[in-house]
Amino acid sequence: MAEAIRDDEGDKNQNMAAWLLGIKTLKIQPYHLPTLGPQDVKVRIKALGICGSDVHHFKTMRCANFIVKKPMVIGHECAGIIEEVGSEVKSLEVGDRVALEPGISCGHCSLCKAGSYNLCPEMRFFGSPPTNGSLAHKVVHPAKLCYKLPDNVSLEEGAMCEPLSVGVHACRRANVGPETNVMIMGSGPIGLVTLLAARAFGAPRIIITDVDVQRLSIARNLGADETAKVSTDIEDVDTDVGKIQNAMGSGIDVSFDCVGFDKTMSTALNATRPGGKVCLIGLAKTEMTVALTPAAAREVDVIGIFRYRSTWPLCIEFLRSGKIDVKPLITHRFGFTQKEIEDAFEISAQGGNAIKVMFNL
């Protein structure tokens, strides 16, 4: 693995990266890259978005069961320009603009061979400990995980392929189509990309919920047909279900829980029609207490997703064709200086009106 070196070892030509050194402690330091392999490319990162998992690492040095135990380069939602190609790379050239899929699977286990490489137990994922991330001037990455961008898709939009991939994978898992009425719990960044993906997959009617009216207003502007302000109190599940169903005006075929609390999952299970599906995207809690038996008696299927697989070509096509516009999700932009990385992560951690915070390197 590439490692940090001391500031006094570097010079102006050193590759620099944002290292997470401790709770809320980020520092731009030199970053030695691994040797370029025959099937690798070296990419100059030009755009990188802050993800919710990055914020968890920043605030607590962990995200779910992934714990930061040593200094780590943060970040994984990225796009850039090819600077060097390995000897066996034929698909890309120096100067190509690319979006990077951040997870490197082993390619050999039964899950990888079956196509479910996102579930590979040996996955090495940018900015997920112990693997260094991509908030750096340059990274080395397998060419097969770098996707060329059309001329009309910007590098910022290329970086947005990563969060958009979560929504696309969820819609595939839930078989969303032109006859699927959809509910989305939570209008944070993942809820909003799920909204965009569901619409692109043909969902005719979409309702989105949140506890924050400002977020619901954003969802409306992005194309939600209905919105519903809900409570955080588990005692209000029945009231919220009635509110959601009345606003929807028809049966909810698929619900996406983009939060992952007892309250949101209980609401989704109860609001979904008999024979429908609930897809759990948000992983806010490692354990939940929900009433599964009534949902099972109504044959409501519960589906999980973890990250994504084989989504970049479709995401890029959605962006190229204009079927999805992710640009309104980018609310804040920063450069790559010590002060700016600190400010960017603080703004992202505060939530508020920040949806996607983007670095331009």
CATH architecture of the domain at 170-304: 3-Layer(aba) Sandwich
Might you state the CATH topology name of the domain at 170-304? Rossmann fold
* Helix vs. strand class: alpha/beta
What's the gyration radius in Å?
A: 21 Å
Q: Roughly how much helix do the residues carry, as a percent range?
A: 25-40%
Proportion of residues in β-strands: 25-35%
What's the count of strands? Answer: 20
| Terminal-residue CA separation | 23 Å
Biggest beta sheet attributes: 7 strands, mixed
Given as residue ranges, the uncertain stretches (5+ residues, pLDDT < 50) are 1-10
CATH class call of the domain at 170-304: Alpha Beta
The number of helical elements comes to 11
Global geometry: globular
Assigned CATH superfamily of the domain at 170-304:
NAD(P)-binding Rossmann-like Domain
Overall mean pLDDT stands at 94
